[in-house]
Automatic annotation (TrEMBL):
Keyword Transcription tagged: no
Disordered: region residues: 491-515
Pfam families given in the database record: Aconitase, Aconitase_C
Database matches in InterPro entries: 3-IsopropMal_deHydase_lsu, 3-IsopropMal_deHydase_ssu, Acnase/IPM_dHydase_lsu_aba_1/3, Acoase/IPM_deHydtase_lsu_aba, Aconitase/3IPM_dehydase_swvl, Aconitase_4Fe-4S_BS, Aconitase_4Fe-4S_dom, AconitaseA/IPMdHydase_ssu_swvl
Residues covered by the Aconitase/3-isopropylmalate dehydratase large subunit alpha/beta/alpha domain: 12-469
Family under the similarity heading: Belongs to the aconitase/IPM isomerase family.
Protein's UniProt name: 3-isopropylmalate dehydratase
Role played: Catalyzes the isomerization between 2-isopropylmalate and 3-isopropylmalate, via the formation of 2-isopropylmaleate.
Cofactors (names): [4Fe-4S] cluster
Length: 758
């Protein structure tokens, strides 16, 4: 009798189908079916490839677009980046991408394409995103694509280079987390509110090291667009990826999309996709139960996506939190946001309203907002109400329905597609101290503009807010009676919702005692870490130090990876006039050459995948960062560049703080895993995965290691072609026939989708 198969989670199933090789060091080489590329996180990867004279292994499995830097003002077609992009750095970044995609024959939807848009909006729209596939992008919101039952996650630029060269990435196995949502969402409450409620419940590090599968009756009822908004913000909960098992809603959405399988292959594919669910009895390391009925329109009051409150609530006070770290974060956030504890959310006046971003710039979002805006005018106190569709396709579809007219009549500006005010890399940005209700995903300090203040909201709340000029309860606007639910207090991780699995444990550190791989011939090693490192320690008393704080967005337009030290903590370090802030630690003479940074709060490096944060820390001179915990993408990025990250225990923190307080230096010896005081006396030890330690000490070149076993990839590609031919064929057919025809019919046909000669 055959032994029954161990029940597997959806994540485990997709993962298993993409294993190219399991390495002795516990890592897995995973095949990537789809790679999305944008202009901000790819230039350094392409230069890396060029310096090795390597080709892109699978051009047809890439999809590139320019989205972050592009102006959203009217486009004078045919658009020439040289004149349309007025900011030189942005122009250079877009032109660099265009040069790279041309050189490597990568499908590209640029400014002249009617399908150009935010990378996470166009992937699904085109049918590039398919259930059961693995998808990566140098962008943390790649989690969006998990809405289709695709294993999709954000990677850093080093990994982008690895994917371009090998169509694989090196990963460790992540944990399984299930967020089960029961009850029902009330009217006026969206998946965005639900996700902010979840983040408020589990915290911004609640999903660290985990893939979150969203399940339960509420999820099943959500449209694909709402599922995308939900999965999009999984990264704001710290998760590696968000996942929803595909179902009829998914298949319906995918069917007929230009790059989706067609004909007889569709039936074949469905058979495979219908197996994509977590088996009954599959093990989850952690399960969170959410009662959707308790969710109200939810908004953020602070500078971290976990700092949420329902729209009927008020701004909390530091004393409302038990945890001293949270108290301090609250104090800092209130100061930054210019808010008084106790103020009612609906009394907070805003200067700007933004409906857009990869979270909420899809047709459904604009339909919902239009229903509220119809026949109304925005409040006179608003300086700007901005509607930025996520893609050209969303824009045209909305225009066909007359949605643009409703927005314009209400006083909104109706723009061309792009990331826009989500990150303000183009000209759409907040001025200092301006307050914005934004449907985007990050309320980090200075994210939307230096010293700008962001409140994250749903599209419905954004529309109601635009009308009132203050944050507004959309349910009152639409005549809905707010449900009588007790207010949820998001004071600390609400343990009663969370159930731990029987095995539990930290997935990142599993397999640490595996032997390491034998050294392989290397060509471009990262810096070795073979000797004791000494230096002074700079202490930053903050939690959730996000990569927007470490490397502010205005510098993300660089195509360099060197010389970024001056950008480090720029907004905290310098006044807007460029003068250093005397009280910031790195401006104090003794810390200008600091080698160590100690963050006292958890979740260092959360948020964006920008590897620039690591490059800047290193360029400043930091060799090691101490923090209670790190966000996953940052953790990977750091080690891939040779930056040591250490999670010290409380005793070691105390000793380091003591040394720093006395103005003394410390030393770290990685080989022995010890921290020493200035005179060489041990003040503590630390844990580190064996493989990470070895890589740092020996130096490593991951691409060379993978290329040394290229036969494994070739073999996997042969097997994959036999077992799941649709994965490649659907994109090849789509690009060369359906989309090619469409591009020909398009009057601005100059070079939008590269001529692909497959
Ligand atoms: C590239 C960058 C601006 C980014 O899109 C990257 C990311 O989220 O990983 C962001 O939103 O911070
Ligand atoms: S989070 Fe904002 S900047 Fe990043 S991809 Fe999404 S829309 Fe663009």
């Amino acid at each position: 009798m055959a032994t029954p198969k161990k029940p597997r989670t959806l994540y485990e199933k997709i993962f298993a189908d993409h294993i190219v090789a399991e390495r002795d060091d516990g890592t897995v080489l995973l095949y990537i079916d789809r790679h999305l590329i944008h202009e901000v996180t790819s230039p350094q990867a392409f230069s890396g490839l060029a310096s090795r004279s390597l080709p892109v292994r699978q051009p047809a499995l890439q999809l590139a677009t320019s989205d972050h830097n592009v102006p959203t003002t009217p486009r004078p077609y045919p658009v020439t980046p040289a004149t349309y992009l007025r900011v030189p750095a942005s122009r250079l970044q877009v032109q660099t991408l265009e040069r790279n995609v041309r050189a490597h024959n990568i499908p590209y939807l640029g400014l002249n394409s009617r399908r150009q848009g935010i990378v996470h909006v166009i992937g699904p729209e085109l049918g590039f995103t398919l259930p059961g596939t693995t998808i990566v992008c140098g962008d943390s919101h790649t989690s969006t694509h998990g809405a289709f039952g695709a294993l999709a996650w954000g990677v850093g630029t080093s990994e982008v280079e690895h994917v371009l060269a090998t169509q694989t990435v090196v990963v460790t196995r992540w944990g399984n987390m299930r967020v089960e949502v029961n009850g029902a969402l009330a009217e006026g409450v969206s998946s965005k509110d639900l996700m902010m409620h979840i983040i408020g419940t589990i915290g911004t590090a609640g999903g660290t090291g985990m893939v979150i599968e969203f399940a339960g009756p509420v999820i099943r009822k959500l449209s694909m667009e709402s599922r995308m908004a939900l999965c999009n913000m999984s990264i704001e909960a710290g998760a590696r990826a968000g996942l929803i098992a595909p179902d009829e809603t998914t298949f319906e959405y995918v069917k007929g999309r230009p790059l989706a399988p067609t004909g007889g292959q569709w039936e074949e594919v469905l058979k495979y996709w219908e197996q994509l669910y977590s088996d009954p009895g599959a093990h989850f390391d952690k399960t969170v139960h959410i009662d959707a009925t308790a969710v109200m329109p939810t908004v953020t009051w602070g500078t971290s996506p976990e700092q949420v409150v329902s729209i009927t609530g008020s701004v909390p006070a530091p004393e409302d939190f038990e945890d001293p770290v949270k108290q301090e974060s609250c104090r800092q956030a209130l100061g930054y946001m210019g808010l008084e504890a106790g103020a009612r959310m609906t009394d907070i006046a805003v200067d700007k309203v933004f409906i857009g971003s990869c979270t909420n710039a899809r047709l459904e979002d604009f339909r919902i907002a239009a229903r509220i805006l119809r026949g109304k005018r925005i409040s006179p106190n608003l300086k700007l109400a901005l509607a930025v569709p996520g893609s050209g396709a969303v824009k045209r579809a909305a225009e066909r329905e007359g949605i643009d007219a409703i927005f314009k009549q209400a006083g909104f500006q109706w723009r061309e597609a792009g990331c826009s005010l989500c990150v303000g890399l183009n000209e759409d940005a907040l001025l200092p101290f301006e307050r914005c209700a934004s449907t985007s995903n990050r309320n980090f300090e200075s994210r939307q503009g230096t010293a700008g203040r962001t409140h994250l909201v749903s599209p419905a709340v954004a529309a109601a807010t635009a009308i009132h000029g203050t944050l507004a309860d959309v349910r009152l606007e639409t005549g809905l009676k707010p449900q009588e639910a007790p207010e949820v207090i998001y004071s600390s991780e609400s343990e009663e919702y969370i159930e731990s699995g029987s095995e539990g444990g930290n997935p990142e550190v599993e397999n640490t005692d595996q032997p390491s791989a034998a050294p392989v011939a290397r060509s471009a090693k990262i810096s070795a870490y073979s000797t004791t490192v000494c230096g002074s320690v700079a202490i930053v008393e903050r939690s959730n130090i996000d990569t927007d704080a470490i490397f502010p967005k205005q510098f993300c337009t660089t195509i360099e990876r060197k010389g970024l030290g001056d950008c480090l903590f720029h907004n905290l370090r310098y006044h807007p006039d460029g003068n250093p802030k005397a009280d910031f630690i790195l401006n104090q003479k003794k810390h200008r050459n600091a080698s160590f940074l100690l963050a006292t709060g958890p979740n260092f490096g959360c948020g964006s995948s920008r590897e620039h944060a690591v490059w800047a820390l290193q360029d400043f001179g930091f060799r090691c960062i101490f923090a209670p915990s790190f966000a996953d993408i940052f953790y990977n990025n750091a080690f891939k560049n040779g930056l040591l990250l250490v999670k010290p225990d409380a005793a070691l923190v105390a000793r380091i703080v003591l040394s720093a307080g006395l103005g003394k230096e410390i030393q770290i010896n990685l080989a022995d895993q010890v921290v020493l005081d200035e005179s060489g006396v041990k003040i503590g030890g630390f844990e580190i995965e064996e493989r990470r330690k070895k890589e740092l000490i020996d130096g490593m070149d991951e691409i060379a290691v993978t290329l040394a076993t290229i036969e494994d990839i070739e073999e996997f590609e042969r097997d994959r072609k036999a077992a799941r031919p649709w994965i490649d064929e659907s994109v090849r057919d789509g690009w060369s026939s359906k989309l090619a025809k469409e591009v020909k019919g398009w009057k601005h046909k100059d070079a939008q989708i590269n001529s692909l000669d497959w």
